Amino acid sequence: MTDPARLLLTLSCEDKPGIVAGIAGTLANSGCNILDSAQFGDPETGLFFMRVEFAAPAGVTREDVTAALAPVAKRYGMDWGVHDATALLPILVMVSKFDHCLLDLIYRQRMGALPVKIVAVVSNHTEAKPIAEMNGIAFHHVPVTRDTKAEAEARLLEIVAESGAELVVLARYMQVLSEALSKQLSGRLINIHHSFLPAFKGAKPYHQAHARGVKLIGATAHYVTSDLDEGPIIEQDAERVSHANSADELVAIGRDIEARVFARAVKFHAERRVFPNGVKTVVFRP
């Protein structure tokens, strides 16, 4: 006997009475069984967000459910979609010389802990090439200089199209992307960095933090926008440190935090748990 199809509905719209009832009733009338549901009405923006995972009975397709939900979606002016909850999201990883986030994503993918498929690695250096090739991932060396930035970004977009990547992640990619590229990949581009900004900018931020005696270090994952490191935040974490920790120990602790925060952000996006809400996000954590 074939297992029921696991599908996922995501929606956002103006917050009005009857949305949840309309969705639940339509799914029930289609013979679907709700497995998980989360919703949030933001009183500040007046928007409503909902994520529903459900099982469709044999013979009922994603297209059937989409057609059934269409009248409800039209009634409330929803931005919505019905997706395959078991699909792996194809992602492209960009990296420079620090490989801890790349290695962590590869390992989590191999374990089945991330619902993604890494389809390509792009780097402005060659250090990550053996890692990609060892794991059967296409590697693309795209050098970047001030004079070749436009050509490099054009090549990146070609690789995104050729690989079928639906998400690009900056796994400690140490180049600033242009405003044009950030806009073109809006909502499909995630970055990770330490959480010292704006206090400790530039080179060796952990060493700067150590010199100032910080007691808390962390990492932030966010969507990339034309405003450098100021895009909507997806995930953050922090860890206490003390005067006894050396600068090198802060670097090691920081890299561990970066890797796990980055992985969670990628997972939340791949599972369609993240909803844009102005300059911030709504994240339905599992």
Description:
The protein has 286 residues and is an alpha/beta fold. It has 2 domains: 5-84, 2-Layer Sandwich (Alpha-Beta Plaits); 89-283, Rossmann fold. The protein is built from 8 helices and 13 strands. The strands form 3 sheets. A 7-stranded mixed sheet has the order 7-6-5-8-9-10-11, sandwiched between helices. α3 links the parallel β5 and β6 (116-123). α1 (19-29) runs antiparallel to α2 (62-76), α3 crosses α8 (247-270) and α7 crosses α8. The chain is globular and about 60 Å long. The two termini are 29 Å apart.
Concise summary:
This protein has 2 domains: 80 residues, Alpha-Beta Plaits, CATH 3.30.70; 195 residues, Rossmann fold (3-Layer(aba) Sandwich). By secondary structure, the chain is of the alpha/beta class.
Count the E strands. Answer: 13
CATH superfamily of the largest domain: Formyl transferase, N-terminal domain
Radius of gyration: 21 Å
CATH domain fold name of the largest domain: Rossmann fold
- H-E string: EHEEHEEHEHEHEHEHEEHEE
Low-confidence stretches: none
CATH architecture descriptor text of the largest domain = 3-Layer(aba) Sandwich
For the sheet with most strands, the description reads: 7 strands, mixed
* β-strand amount: 25-35%
Strand order of the largest sheet: 7-6-5-8-9-10-11
In the CATH scheme, the class of the largest domain would be Alpha Beta
